[in-house]
Amino acid sequence: MPTNLDLQTRANDAYMKLYPHKHIAIGRGNGVYLYDMDGKEYLDCAGGIAVTALGHNHPAFNKAITEQLERGFTMCIGSIATEPKVKAAELLLAHCCAEKIFFCNSGAEAVEGSLKLARTWAHQNKSEEAKEFIVFGSSFHGRTYGAVSATEKSRHQPQFAPYLPGFHFATYNDLDSVKALITDKICAIMVEPVQGEGGLTAGTPEFFKGLRDLCDDNNILLISDEIQSGMGRMGKLMAHAHFDYEPDITCLAKGLGGGFPVGAFMAKEKIADAFNAGDHGSTYAGNPLATNVAYHVVSEIVRPEFLKRVREASLYFRERLGALHNETGNAIKAVKGEGLMIGIDTKYQIKELLHELLEAGLMATQAGKNTLRLTPPLIISNEEIDKAVAVISDVLKNNKNLIKYEG
Ligand SMILES: Cc1ncc(COP(=O)(O)O)c(C=O)c1O
Asked: pTM of whole model > 0.90?
């Protein structure tokens, strides 16, 4: 069996250098734990960045894959119905304010499809000029061209220019800044219920209500990008249900497959009907393996006891982190986010903090400029939360390698 060092070295030789170098290689997982090639255990509070909703090695996830393999087919052309895809579609639509769905393979594809649907709808229902979008500062919508054009940070990478024209950036949680950008050319506003990559800022209920009203008053569609915040992470299946607003189009991915690549966008029928056969599609979209996994993962998450437990876990985690503020000599400046999408601003630089947490056996990620992000599997127990909090507390109190953040 290769060691951490073997695999790291080979990875460095083979991979494009698009991700910062890590000093571990993962060999297996179970529940909320991952194990590296040298056998060290990590409490996984990254969850593949809000992906592994059911944790690792979950029976429902494993069953979904083996069950479909036993049926002997993993691909089918998009025009032919399969039971897993129909069941996954019906289940998701039963829990969303939408009547139609398109499955895809990733979050960025869900965003691209939504942008295309919004323009198609506006072309037919508004005007041929209504092709523009309002999006938000500190947003993140993915890495394909439409998605990066809607992502503020990515637009500062001049080597990728030219971006798609027609994306206007308002300030998150600031309705006046949105109002100021509304013209007859706007077809949709796209918003994240909680800004994930941007630093774990949650939208306020007033903000979402205001966006809905602005959209209704100006014949504009509201797109909810809940790729990171959806699929139970807020304690409700849909993030927009948690914040109590009704989008016209909802984008999903990440937790939808619990680790298997699958995404989707859903829309109200009167909007989805703007699409005609051939307007959109993808070879792998909605394949039986991916949709069988989505069906079983969502069936698990949508159980009332499961969602109740997510709400309890979120409250417990936040309570415990809140208590750390004094305990760590004010090393924690703020605990942010919503549900099990937790952001912690500390007085230390994130790079060293993440490294030291990993050394201490806790896996987490960075969001925004300097926010520590915890997006654990939704199955995390109170005991595991205690363990995560103990590691964070110990590193913040005792670690000499942390560097003060001056931002
Ligand atoms: C809110 C949001 N939208 C879109 C995406 C893009 O998803 P993917 O990486 O699956 O393309 C992400 C990924 O982090 C995301 O958090």
From this structure: yes
